[in-house]
Write a structure and sequence with these properties.
The complex is a heterodimer of chains A (696) and B (211). By secondary structure, chain A is an alpha/beta fold. Chain A has 24 helices and 28 strands. Chain A has four domains: 58 residues, Single Sheet (N-terminal domain of TfIIb), CATH 2.20.25.90; 238 residues, Rossmann fold, CATH 3.40.50.740; 190 residues, Dimethylsulfoxide Reductase, domain 2, CATH 3.40.228.10; 111 residues, Barwin-like endoglucanases (Beta Barrel), CATH 2.40.40.20. The chains are: A alpha/beta (696), B alpha+beta (211). At the A-B interface, strand 3, helix 1, helix 7 and helix 23 of A face helix 4 and helix 7 of B.
């Protein structure tokens, strides 16, 4: 095969948290083809249409190839020197006038660990603030919170291999055959070999057809479902008493709470048949090895972090942790959601989730970086937007996240971006967010950079450049290091490997990580100084005081939004196979030939009642916004619910999402929004004025 | 549990359940294969991986024969090689044009020193399907090895591809002859990845080859 190509580079996929290892074949300076690496631990010689085919975006004519600076209201091409000068002048002016906490930065869950580590060091050491966050805020921050609270470490307790070993798996709030296709394929194969799969989702996802039971709870009632499952496990004697006695604490309180959640009560709350709940509990509770896997359908709720804790409860009650096939496997969304947070691109923690208020930790970073560091916890992403609107946040440096398309309550986000005095955006394409930028820095796609990604298995894997950045674009790592140097703080690194050496030196969980040891198979953190990694966590003890896991006694509470006469349907948002998140990359590939628009899924009964036919353009209005989209009439969605995606900016899906968010992590409630749907033109549009929405 | 076998005079120890092909590869010996893909369950259809086994009157397919204690295997057994070479030559004789040099089939033909097929006669009709942005059918190159169908079933789990036709007309189709685009295909490309002849090919690589 090789004679057709100039070179072939083994790297890690930049789409989704599965972490497929890929062979990128290059001809004439372009990626000609991508094939899966046979020895990839997560993909074993398979990949999906995004990883394999959707690479043409890397040489799309719209790629940013030079810096842009806003002059007289217009973004115009500029040199790197001009762009850097503008950044240094503005950030210095704002810092001098308002202090470092008037500046905030966002790292990207699509970027490498080294990029994210550099970004948090830039904000902390060069600017002097903990106002650093990343887009895992709006997806899996509740998972991270819950796993740390209940078990100790912020990551899956096992690997995807657990699907191969499990006798039963509960899949809740995830649609892997579209969002994580290679894991979806692996789950399919497991079911074909006899694994009992229970799917829990308001949509009848493809994997429901491969499972033994599908439950469709009302959106926002996951907590009641998990409490109901635990109730039946307790009532019917499916507990692992030894495990509870020797390895956990706090079960008594949970036991008392569970009395309130008998199957009939859960049927009343969640709308799932009591008998089905009992069956599901027995499938999970009676299995020798049982796993639970989940996605954003669990986390993106007002009580998402609590539901994730209730999932931990269920695993602890049945002793389904620390063994092959008995795991908790959150499906992290973007390729480096795990790593961007591990790297300390969070307002409250340094690397490996160590608090910025921990004096010993802070001093270790001060000694390494040679500067004094703030002990004040910084702002989370939604707080940054609120502060920008309120006028206390003056500047942002946003790297690799299109907040104006993907964050909730678009009108509020736009208002925030408009309110800033200075906005730097580091991107590969112009997007909804660059429209508000004062300086745009042309950056690199994953096929153009070196570093590491950490997948949903906690597996740190090497990323190698197949091609060069186009034009004057540079790698994100170079850009951030250059900006930091211009601001007077020199990282002192030559390349990303130097950054990883520093991470390893300052982070016990990464102590044994070197590029040489990562090799072709990667390492699952924590990695001991001798290089021993940890595919399975908690084999003997939990990473909490006394080595014991903690049960969480949390009741069901209602979601942040609810149907009423004016807004009688519940909107759930999610993803489709052909597109990735905001679509920045996949919309610029042949994937648009396979899927060229967002559609609103609606049940035939609701469609008939509303006089909507398949393909009609419909108006969708929520309490905060309105948009128009094509209807797709399908029985995949339950009556009373509608579903759409946010892959195309023209849809403006996130105009509809309000400010309700997870109580512990501020992760937005993308999954429960009351809406009114009707054929277009039936009623005059009621569009709330932009800029006034959600500011109260 | 492990099993001990001898491959071309070299002793190797393999796990219980390993095949002769696994053992040969563990011993660093080359055995030609055509319908085999390590991502799929052994299929044993093509008879290209035949090897000689002491005590067996006929050559045995290495990909589906489990190792048993004490087996003595000859990878270059003359009968086995003669049959494998004839199989490849017959396969090639059905194609209207030789497979592209980079394909697996072309590589095996080179390695087995199969020249121009000695059997002229009917060749597969040229039928192309180009309705998909990434995947193309070149039906005339299909040798019915079943790898694409099994990739779709055993690796992806979508069951979009089907073996169709009989005998000389045996071929592969997406769905009920609906094409990739209108079948259940999820465009993962596992079929093109495993195809040894480019009967299913990546559109961009066909473009690359013709440019």
């Amino acid at each position: 095969m090789s004679e057709r190509f100039d070179s072939t580079v083994t790297t890690t996929c930049g789409y989704c948290g599965v972490g497929c290892r890929l062979e990128a074949h290059v001809a004439g300076g372009r990626v000609a083809a991508i094939s899966p690496a046979l020895d990839g631990p997560a993909n074993a010689g398979h990949t999906c249409l995004k990883g394999r085919f959707a690479h043409q975006f890397s040489r799309h004519r719209a790629r940013l190839t030079s810096p842009l600076i806003r002059t007289d209201g217009e973004l115009r091409p500029a040199t790197w020197e001009e762009a850097l000068e503008r950044i240094v002048n503005e950030l210095t002016r704002i810092k001098d006038a308002h202090g470092p906490d008037a500046i905030a930065g966002l790292a990207s869950s699509r970027a490498t660990n080294e990029d994210c580590y550099a970004m948090q060091r830039l904000m902390r050491a060069a600017v002097g603030t903990n106002n650093i966050d990343n887009c895992s805020r709006v997806c899996h921050s509740p998972t991270s919170f819950a796993l740390r609270k209940s078990l100790g470490l912020s990551g899956a307790t096992g690997t995807f291999a657990d699907f191969d070993h499990a006798d039963a798996t509960i899949l809740i709030g995830a649609n892997p055959t579209e969002g994580h296709p290679v894991v979806g394929a692996r789950i399919k194969q497991a079911t074909l070999r006899g694994m009992q799969l229970v799917t829990i989702d308001p949509r009848r996802i493809e994997l429901a057809d491969y499972g033994v039971l599908h439950l469709s709870p009302r959106p926002g009632t996951n907590a009641a479902v998990m409490l109901g499952l635990a109730h039946v496990v307790l009532r019917d004697g499916l507990l692992d008493h030894d495990f509870i006695r020797t390895r956990t604490q706090g079960f008594e309180v949970v036991e008392a709470l569970l009395a309130d959640y008998d199957p009939d009560e859960v049927e009343r709350i969640a709308g799932i048949p009591a008998g089905d709940l009992e069956t599901a509990a027995h499938i999970y509770g009676e299995a020798e090895r049982a796993s639970v896997s989940w996605g954003l359908g669990v986390t993106e709720h007002r009580y998402g972090s609590e539901v994730a804790q209730l999932i931990c409860n269920l695993a602890l009650m049945t002793g389904n942790l620390g063994r092959p096939g008995a795991a908790l496997l959150p499906l992290r969304g973007q390729n480096n959601v795990q790593g961007s947070s591990d790297m300390g691109a969070l307002p409250d923690t340094y690397t490996a989730y160590r608090s910025v208020t921990d004096e010993d930790v802070a001093q270790s970073f001060e000694a390494a970086w040679g500067v004094a560091l703030s002990r004040k916890v910084g702002m989370k992403i939604p707080e940054m937007f609120d502060a920008a609107v309120a006028g206390s946040l003056k500047a942002m440096y946003i790297f690799g996240e299109d907040v104006a398309q993907t964050d909730p309550d678009t009108a509020h986000v736009q208002h925030a971006l408009e309110s800033l005095e200075f906005l730097v955006v580091q991107e590969i394409f112009e997007n909804e967010t660059t429209r508000f930028a004062d300086v745009v820095l042309p950056a690199s796609a994953f096929l153009e950079k070196r570093g590491t990604f950490t997948n949903a298995e906690r597996r740190i894997q090497l990323v190698e450049p197949a091609i060069e950045p186009p034009g004057d674009a540079r790698t994100d790592f170079d850009i951030i290091a250059t900006v930091s140097r211009a601001l007077g703080h020199d990282f002192g690194w030559q390349d990303p490997e130097d950054a990883m050496r520093e991470i390893a030196a300052l982070t016990p969980h990464f102590a044994g990580v070197t590029y040489a040891r990562l090799g072709r198979a990667g390492l699952c953190w924590p990695v001991a100084p001798d290089g021993t990694d940890a595919p399975i966590l908690y084999e003997r003890e939990f990473e909490l005081p006394g080595g014991r896991a903690r049960f969480a006694a949390l009741p069901y509470r209602e979601p942040g939004d609810h149907v009423d006469e004016e807004f009688p349907l519940i909107l759930v948002t999610g993803r489709r196979l052909q597109h990735y998140n905001a679509g920045t990359m996949t919309r610029r590939t042949g994937n648009v030939e396979l899927n060229d628009r967002d559609v609103l899924e609606i049940h035939p009964d609701d469609a008939a009642r509303l006089w909507i036919s398949d393909g009609d353009v419909v108006s969708v209005r929520s309490r905060v916004g309105r948009t128009e989209v094509h209807a797709h009439v399908t029985e995949r969605i339950e009556r009373g619910n509608v579903f759409t995606t946010f892959h195309f900016p023209e849809t403006g899906t996130n105009l509809l999402i309000g400010q309700s968010a997870d109580v512990n992590t501020s992760c937005p409630e993308y999954k429960v929004v009351a809406v009114d749907v009707r054929p277009i033109g039936e009623q005059a549009a009621k569009t709330p004025a932009l800029g006034l929405v959600g500011t109260g | 549990m492990s099993v001990h076998v001898t491959i071309d005079g070299r002793a190797v120890e393999v796990a219980d359940g390993a095949t002769l092909l696994d053992a040969a590869r563990a011993a660093g010996r080359w055995v030609p294969t055509l319908c085999f893909d390590p991502r799929q369950a052994p299929f044993g259809a093509c008879r290209v991986c035949l090897v000689g086994v002491e005590g067996s009157a006929v050559p045995l397919p290495a990909c589906t024969t489990p190792c048993r204690e004490g087996m003595e295997v000859r990878t270059e057994d003359p009968t086995a090689r003669r049959v494998a070479t004839a199989v490849v030559e017959l396969v090639l004789s059905e194609l209207p044009e030789p497979p592209a040099a980079h394909t697996e089939l072309a590589g095996i033909a080179r390695a087995l020193e199969v020249g121009e097929p000695r059997w002229p006669g009917a060749t597969h009709a040229v039928v192309h399907e180009d309705d998909h942005p990434y995947l193309a059918f070149r039906h005339e190159l299909c040798i019915s090895c079943g790898r694409c169908v099994r990739a779709c079933d055993e690796v992806q789990g979508t069951f979009a591809l089907t073996a169709v036709g009989r005998g000389f007309d045996a071929n592969v189709a997406a769905g009920i002859e609906e094409g990739f685009r209108h079948s259940a295909c999820v465009s993962c490309g596992a079929c093109a990845d495993t195809c040894p002849t480019e009967a299913i090919a990546e559109m961009s690589l066909l473009d690359l080859a013709s440019s």
